[in-house]
Amino acid sequence: MYHILSKSRDNVIGIRVTGYMSAEDYDTLLPFVEKMITRYNTIRVVSDLREFKSVSFWGTLKTLPFAFKYSSHVDRKAVITDQSWIYTWSRVLSPFFKTDVRCFPSSQADKAWEWIEK
Q1: How many domains does the chain have?
Q2: 8: which of 32, 91, 113, 117 lies 20 to 30 Å off by Cα?
Q3: Cα separation of 68 and 34, whole Å?
Q4: How do residues 4-62 score in pLDDT, each as one tens digit?
Q5: CATH number of 56's domain
Q6: Torsion on CA atoms 32, 43, 78, 5, rounded to nearest 10
């Protein structure tokens, strides 16, 4: 499940993911992100994954084409997490996208927002 954070404004979107992210969650999240890209052309995203547990296989399949299509419209993405596997996957996948992605531990969540708002 996800929530758009109240700190979001203009082309900066904060998304908190908690627990399990289903394919149905992506059915509402991806159109929202697409709408923001249409409005601003370039967006920045903070993904707060501190309480994230897992994602459905079908949800992952939905995000990949979307990510490839719109990566040039996401200028920066800050990922807040203490889960090492997310850091690893961010490094492995980053060469395939045009987005500048940085991971921040939970203790540096404020720094993630500072970086995204620069």
Answers
A1: 1
A2: 91
A3: 13
A4: 999 999 999 999 999 999 999 999 999 999 999 999 999 999 999 999 999 999 999 99
A5: 3.30.750.24
A6: -40
